[in-house]
Fold each of these.
Amino acid sequence: MSRPGLLAMDSYQLAKYATPVPCYICDGVNATNAELCRHCQAPMALAHQVQQNVTPQMVAVLGTTGSGKTVYIGMLTDMLSRYSNELQLLARGAFSISLQQATAGALSQCEFPLKTPNEPDRWNWVHSRVLVPKKNQKIELIMPDVAGEALMEEIEHPHSYPVIRAFLGKCTAVLILIDIEGLDEGCDDQDYFGMKIITYLNEMNSDPKTGWGSRPISIVFTKSDQCDACFEDPVGFARQRTPGLFKQCGERLRRCRFFASSVAGACAFEVSREGRFRVPLRIEPRGITEPFIWLIHQLTGTK
Ligand SMILES: Nc1nc2c(ncn2[C@@H]2O[C@H](COP(=O)(O)OP(=O)(O)OP(=O)(O)O)[C@@H](O)[C@H]2O)c(=O)[nH]1
Ligand SMILES: [Mg+2]
Ligand SMILES: [Zn+2]
């Protein structure tokens, strides 16, 4: 015979999982305990980390595959989080430090980091607080390291990577990386890439006041360790070597500036059974922080 008793019902605990949480990148609705957005695969940690009274700005680093995005973002975050007086970076959430750690780790062993996988759930999303000490200003920033192949796919076939489109739609500034190595021997793929990305952004939002024509854009010539002339005069270099991009910038962008950057002081090639790989012989960052600092000053109105 069974005796009557009281049994506590735990089903109310499930109620909290029914509260939908919007993804910070695409606004798609997800369950509270989702790790990745089920619509665009962006980490849901971004939505949880963002405080209600702080709206993070989104900044994109765009470039073809192999143009140096991962090396650039990794080195930039490493430099700004350690020893910059002009601007300081504080990572929000441990996962924001992974890219910096992977890049610094690889470079310290005289290697370059691995190519970024095409799957959005494997990208590193750097979420940080940026401080401008002299002006006592701070902003929150989200800056992912996207794969160049995925980016090109989205530019050539819009909507193939919804996460890229959603993210770029919310960006307030971009850094466009142009690989100067790709400009050698009369190859103009990098010039075409620059023109395509500016056209893509302008088509996305061409409003004269809020569109891309009035948002800050840094054009960064990467791997400039291979060309002193580029460091000496990035504008002259752009005019001569990327004439299509230079013209588009002059005609369509009101807040655009050219920069030269490099991470490696000198490189060599290592030949193994897997192929021929470039290895950095010494790390000598040049022009890494300048394009980013200029963007932040543009965003905060501090210069
Ligand atoms: N000489 C020189 N080579 C560099 C420099 N930075 C990157 N590289 C070379 O460019 C390659 C690609 O760099 P990544 O940062 O992985 O390029 P990525 O744009 O992230 O490429 P995806 O992940 O495919 O989109 C490296 O493996 C190096 O061979 C640099 O400052 N100088
Ligand atoms: Mg990469
Ligand atoms: Zn999403």
Note: The longest strand covers residues 275-286.
Amino acid sequence: MNEIKELTDLVLRFRDERNWAQFHNPKDLAISLVLEASELLEHFQWKNGDEVAHHIEAHKDRIGEELADVLYWVLLLSHDLDLDIIEAFKAKMEGNARKYPVDKARGRHEKYTELHGL
Ligand SMILES: [Mg+2]
């Protein structure tokens, strides 16, 4: 069993034990995903470079919890949409590699449209 499947099964068991699927629809799952991503952002809001570094050092566990919350909703939404997130991720990475070829993008931060003169 791959680890994504294993984690998805954990998420589904958690939901099913609480009978929460009745409250779930793609819109609200997507909203939940963004809300958790926003909670991640709160760790960095209003902090400068040094403060960010110190905050990460002091609160890596809490940052990890927010990343886990994001992953929870990614896994659940992927499941409910019957979407293979592993295949979607691989396809996206292949697309990213085409958008950002190493010979053009290495060491540069411009968006792909800039790199390709689009
Ligand atoms: Mg959270």
Note: The mean pLDDT is 96.
